[in-house]
Design goal:
The complex is a heterodimer. By secondary structure, chain A is of the alpha+beta class. Chain A has helices at 3-6, 39-44, 84-94, 119-123, 170-186, and strands at 23-26, 31-37, 59-62, 65-71, 74-79, 100-104, 109-115, 141-146, 149-157, 160-166. Chain A folds into two domains: 1-29 and 108-187, Probable tRNA modification gtpase trme, domain 1 (Gyrase A, domain 2, 2-Layer Sandwich); 30-105, Alpha-Beta Plaits (2-Layer Sandwich), CATH 3.30.70. Chain A is globular. The N and C termini of chain A lie far apart (49 Å). Among the domains of chain B are: 14-120, 2Fe-2S iron-sulphur cluster binding domain, sarcosine oxidase, alpha subunit, N-terminal domain (Ubiquitin-like (UB roll)), CATH 3.10.20.440; 166-292 and 418-485, FAD/NAD(P)-binding domain, CATH 3.50.50; 322-409, FAD/NAD(P)-binding domain (3-Layer(bba) Sandwich); 890-987, Elongation Factor Tu (Ef-tu), domain 3 (Beta Barrel). Chain B is of the alpha+beta class.
Chain lengths: 187, 987
């Protein structure tokens, strides 16, 4: 069997919550790397495609890849077009002379997207951040909470959010969104 | 049709929509738009409850959330029953079932009204003095008696059938209260373009405008202006109007807590609707437009049903079309009651007298009343109310002498108290205004402004202007102006005990807590000087009421008794919530299955399918054991333990905390974190590490594997990983920012499968690619990277059972497939799957510690017999200095030992004390305690690990271990019971 046939992604056994003003969809498995280091490590990692942003709380994407600022010395790199190994090799070559940390966390996290006019309100049932476009514009990403689950919230578009969370929180995240969606259906 | 006290026309109720409801099993009819209180009054129901302490009959005092008396239980079904709701806030719906509270056997004949006769037993502070002796009687007699007698509604017995929602909201301006000032603020802020949210506790927005029949705003009636204003606000996309929402708390950084009632007003709510929604609001600016509360007058029997606040009486008339009585006496110290008298008279209520406590009164409203021919007595003294279940008359002393005036309604006004509760909660300073005899908002502590009556700006025109300015100022916008006609000024007011009346036991100040004027003066005579102490001693202004109608009267009475000015005595602190909040609303979605996240490993489902019984480890679920039909728990343990020791066993170890430490300074970082030295750890090798707190005590343990010169795979305990990460982050950020090292939590990246037992290697061999797992190539305590079943793996040779052991780490998505492949190999060898129970037994047989079981935050490496692990010649590591302190090096510290009970069948209790002698005198010190205890299938006997003072120096000694039934003898032995030479590890 090929490795892909052996895969059982964390959200495989769940059904996306339904809401009339927002659509929840599960993201495909992706390669995720965490890049740690100082500014010059981020610059050297531009080989990835989108250069890891130096501006706090920003995400940049290019083709099927995204680089998301996580803290002053940490970036999340997401690639939907590559297995981890070739990317790790590419980046380690680019970063050979720069102190850095590069760790494969592809399987650590699961992700889903919420889109639609009601997406921000649905999220605000459990996310304490101000999701008005003036405070949380497209291209912004922040680590926050969905009630009791740690999440990374990335606004990919005006009405499009991606949530990354620890795989063992999958059931919790899905169930919370399902309840919030049900609560907001009628009011 | 809807009660004899309903007016022919007028009010905001819908006369075309009658609504049936019941109160204490009697059926009544009200109208759409009624509250339970207005509907009861319309039906002539005056007696609605019994008081907290004395069980006195009580009626309806107010018309809003400040109601202290009319508390009722609502709900036809037990699963939706809610006690202690204010009848003045309960919206009527078809089929509503309400019950009165605190009565037995019935509301009209209440047995415990005898408490009233026994009131000398219940003075202020009665808890502290009446029932002090004998001590034993407190628990068996007094407390149960008091608990039964005093109290309010009963708690529902059934599980709450409802759901509760939550919403975080942010805005430029949050406006609390949608009366004239709040709406004017909303208009100004809305037109200024900011994000505006307006909260109001009532079903309809408008506040006092909802009962305003006289005044005209911008040439329109108040009702028309209100409708137009709400329509404008609703049409603006930047405005959110939230009615039925009580802002109950004002917290730091302009954070407001609000409760929105979503279904309580509906007969048959949409089942999709949650019952309530918690609003957690962060506002750049807050405008408080919370209005004012009318004060009752303090006189004997002022709590009789039929005695209500004058403005409440007017509100019932104008807003609900209900005459609250047929013959009224107006007792007042404020002009606004004249207006109530006038409008009640216009509606056909007979006004027996306006008894004005003031010697002289001038003003537009009194003039209008006199012109209308109403009888006004100045300098009146209210001697007391007559009637028991309902007021039947009032004893009034006036210029014409003292007489009893017959009436079925006493409408009273002591003037107005600005509602500064939320302002006070925001930590703003209150300032006493001598002219108004009121505390007003002074300097704001947060970005907040009060507007309208809540800061003493009472007159309609002034309140609108004040609100508009507050709303505009919040956004730097311009304030709209309003032209107001026919809204005369009303002045006056009195706080405290009216002149000419003594301190009477039945002159109530705090109706909800049954506190009288006498209780307050008694408290000062007993030496209480601080108003905060007086409050606690008398219970005035406490609990859910928070002194809405009582605070100022109580304060003035205390101030007079202390002969101090009010401003000097000061006000007590207002506490959230402003009105009670349902517990479930605070929990909102975090209930039942969503109370906490339940973390499951990639192998969880397989375990469940194979009979696993789970236990909790932090938020994780871990398999305790795998049950087979017909097995006892001991038989299960025997099968899992012996299967592993004799052949092989598999376990899901995925919850084990895992970190990847990378960077050129990784070794240095680990050297500083752990007691061990990692300088000489070769690539591909593992070392068991101990981590200490700064105080020198064991905090966590785990295995450190070197994958490359600058890359380590580190494991921690399952529940300790968060603590370890915090310690690492703390030191890296604050002490060692110069180190080029980074760590990443990777617990969930890997599914971890432990395979232990003499046949472990055979099970793995067919599945492994690219790793030589022969004993020579891969010794105990090593880690290799390669592939298993075609997927990448980090394969470790480690053991926590004492047997040959491997740990297969694979990326989590592959976990189940790899597990099943290994299981299939294992079944050929009759391997077992085991849970945490078996792991704990096997490791304890080897004397391996579990952090949190053998350690409790006071245990050093040496206490555990692991002192040799400490690399004392390292320059430093966390906890190093502490290890040399006298207490941590003294003789006689508790040390880890083994225990063998003399009776081999006994399993000692974990936590049991270990003592010198079989029978000990009370107070004898313990030698130590049992930390782990099991029955061992391998040893065929019970055994334990324990921490015992000086334990290593008394090997072989006999000790006694406490049980629930006397002590049991046990022998102190080395803490290792199986394969002391460690030969099996190298099988």
């Amino acid at each position: 069997m090929t490795p892909d046939a052996l895969r059982r992604p964390p959200l495989a056994s769940f059904v996306p919550p339904r809401a009339s003003r927002a659509e929840v969809s599960f993201c495909k498995p992706a390669t995720r790397l965490t890049l740690r280091g100082r500014e010059h490590a981020a610059r050297a990692a531009a080989a990835f495609g989108p250069a890891p942003p130096l501006r706090p709380l920003r995400a940049v994407e290019k083709d099927a890849r995204a680089a998301i600022w996580q803290s002053p010395d940490e970036w999340l790199l997401i690639a939907e077009d590559s297995e981890p190994r070739p990317l790790i090799d590419l980046l380690q070559a680019a970063l050979a002379d720069v102190p850095h940390g590069l760790v494969d966390i592809s399987h650590r996290q699961a992700a889903l997207e919420i889109s639609g006019a009601g997406a921000a309100r649905l999220l605000n049932a459990g996310v304490p951040l101000d999701l008005d476009l003036s405070a949380f514009p497209a291209g912004m990403a922040a680590r926050t909470l969905l009630v009791k689950a740690d999440i990374l919230l990335w606004r990919r578009g005006v009405e499009r959010f991606r949530l990354e969370f620890g795989r063992s929180f999958s059931a919790y995240v899905v169930d919370i969104l399902a309840q919030a969606a049900a609560d907001q259906e009628a009011c | 049709m809807t009660g004899g006290f309903r007016t022919a026309s007028g009010g905001r109720v819908d006369r075309a929509k009658p609504i049936e409801f019941s109160f204490d099993d009697v059926r009544y009819r009200g109208l759409a738009g009624d509250t339970l209180a207005s509907a009861l009054l319309a039906n002539g129901v005056r007696l609605v409850g019994r008081s907290f302490k004395y069980h006195r009959p009580r009626g309806i005092l107010a018309a809003g959330s400040e109601e202290p008396n009319a508390l009722v239980g609502i709900g036809a079904r037990e699963s939706r029953f809610t006690p202690n709701l204010r009848a003045t806030q309960v919206e009527l719906y078809r089929g509503l079932q309400a019950v009165s509270q605190n009565k037995w056997p019935s509301l009209r004949r209440d047995f415990q009204a005898i408490n009233g006769w026994l009131s000398p037993l219940f003075p202020a502070g009665f808890y502290y003095k009446t029932f002090m002796r004998p001590t034993a009687a407190w628990r068996s007699l007094y407390e149960p008696l008091i608990r039964r007698a005093a109290g309010l509604g009963r708690a529902p017995k059934a599980r709450d059938a409802d759901r509760y929602a939550n919403l975080y909201a942010h805005c430029d301006v949050a406006i609390v209260g949608a009366g004239p000032a709040g709406l004017a603020a909303a208009l100004a802020a809305a037109r200024g373009g900011g994000r505006v949210i307006v909260f109001d506790e009532q079903a309809e927005m408008g506040g006092s405008l909802l009962a305003e029949t006289r005044a005209r705003i911008d040439g329109r009636s108040a009702a028309e202006w209100l409708a137009a204003t709400l329509a404008e606000l609703r049409a603006r996309p930047n405005v959110t109007l939230v009615p039925r929402a009580q802002i109950f708390g004002y917290y730091a950084q302009n954070f407001l807590g609000g409760l929105e009632r979503l279904t309580d007003h509906l007969a048959e709510p949409d089942p999709r609707l949650p019952r309530e929604r918690l609003w957690q609001v962060r506002a750049k600016r807050v405008v408080l437009a919370t209005g004012a509360h009318e004060r009752p007058l303090v006189f004997p029997n002022n709590d009789r049903p039929g005695i209500m606040l004058a403005e409440a009486a007017r509100t019932y008339l104008q807003r609900y079309g209900v005459k609250p009585g047929s013959r009224a006496l107006i007792a007042t110290a404020h002009d606004s009651a004249y207006r109530a008298a006038l409008e009640l008279a216009e509606a056909g209520v007979d006004i027996a007298m306006i008894a004005d406590l003031r010697d002289e009164t001038t003003g537009e409203w009194p003039d209008l009343a006199r012109k209308a021919g109403l009888r006004v007595e100045q300098g009146a003294r209210i001697r007391g109310a007559r009637g028991k279940l309902q007021v039947s008359g009032v004893r009034v002393a006036a210029r014409g002498g003292e007489q009893t005036i017959a009436c079925d309604l006493l409408a009273m006004s002591g003037g107005w108290t600005p509602s500064v509760h939320l302002f006070s909660q925001s930590r703003g300073k209150l300032v006493f205004d001598e002219a108004l005899q009121a505390f007003l908002p002074g300097e704001s502590a947060q970005d907040e402004r009060s507007a309208g009556a809540c800061r003493g700006v009472f007159r309609l025109a002034a309140a609108l202007k004040d609100g508009a300015e507050a709303g505009a100022a919040a956004l730097g916008a311009s304030a709209p102006s309003f032209a107001v006609e026919d809204a005369p000024e009303a002045g006056g007011g009195l706080v405290g005990q009216p002149p000419g009346s003594g301190y009477d036991a039945k002159a109530f100040v705090d109706f909800q807590n049954d506190v009288t004027a006498r209780d307050l003066s008694l408290a000062t005579r007993e030496g209480f000087r601080s108003i905060e102490h007086v409050k606690r001693y008398t219970t005035s202004g406490m609990a859910t009421d928070q002194g809405k109608t009582s605070n100022m009267n109580a304060l003035a009475i205390a101030a007079e008794a202390l002969a101090k000015p009010i401003a000097e005595v000061g006000l007590t602190t207002f506490r959230p919530p402003y009105t009670p909040v349902t517990f479930a609303t605070f929990a909102h979605m975090s209930r039942r299955g969503l109370f906490d996240p339940v973390r499951k490993t990639p192998l969880h489902d397989w375990a469940e399918e194979h009979g696993a019984i789970f236990e909790e480890a932090g938020l994780w679920k871990r398999a305790s054991y795998f049950r087979r039909a017909g097995e006892t728990l001991r038989e299960t343990h025997i099968r899992e333990c012996l299967g592993t020791r004799q052949r092989a066993g598999m376990m899901d170890a995925s919850t084990l905390g895992k970190l990847e430490v990378t960077g050129p300074d990784a070794v240095e970082f680990l050297n500083r974190l752990y007691v061990n030295s990692f300088d000489k750890l070769a690539v591909g090798r593992c070392r068991y590490g101990l981590m200490l707190t700064e105080a020198g005590f064991v905090m966590d343990d785990g295995v450190v594997a070197r994958l490359a010169p600058d890359r380590f795979h580190v494991t921690t305990t399952s529940v300790g990983v968060g603590r370890v990460v915090a310690q690492m982050e703390d030191f890296l950020q604050t002490e060692w920012p110069d180190l080029d090292v980074w760590f990443t939590p990777v617990t969930e990246q890997w599914a971890t499968i432990a395979i232990n037992g003499p046949m472990a290697r055979q099970m793995l061999q067919p599945l492994i690619e690219g790793i030589d797992i022969s004993p020579a190539a891969m010794p105990h305590m090593s880690m290799r990277e390669g592939r298993i079943c075609g997927v990448p793996t980090r394969l470790a040779r480690v053991s926590f059972t004492g047997e040959l052991g491997f740990e297969v780490n694979v990326p989590a998505d592959y976990g189940r497939a790899v597990w099943e492949a290994i299981w299939a190999e294992g079944r050929k060898l009759d391997c077992v799957v085991y849970g945490l129970d078996t792991l704990l037994i096997l490791r304890a047989e080897k004397g391996y510690i579990v952090v949190g079981q053998e350690t409790d935050g006071t245990v050093t490496p040496d206490d555990l017999g692991l002192g040799r692990m400490v690399a004392k010649n390292k320059p430093d590591f966390i906890g190093k200095r502490s290890l040399t302190t006298p207490d941590l090096t003294r003789a006689g510290r508790k040390q880890l030992v083994g225990l063998l009970p003399e009776d081999v069948e006994i399993k000692l209790d974990e936590g049991a004390q270990i003592v010198h002698e079989e029978k000990l005198a009370i107070g004898s010190p313990a030698l130590g305690h049992v930390t782990s205890s099991y029955w061992s299938p391998t040893l065929q006997r019970g055994f334990a690990l324990a921490l015992v003072a000086g334990g290593r120096s008394i090997m072989g000694a006999r000790a006694h271990v406490t049980t629930m039934d006397g002590t049991r003898p046990a022998q102190i032995v080395e803490p290792i019971f199986y394969d002391k030479e460690g030969k099996r590890l190298d099988a």
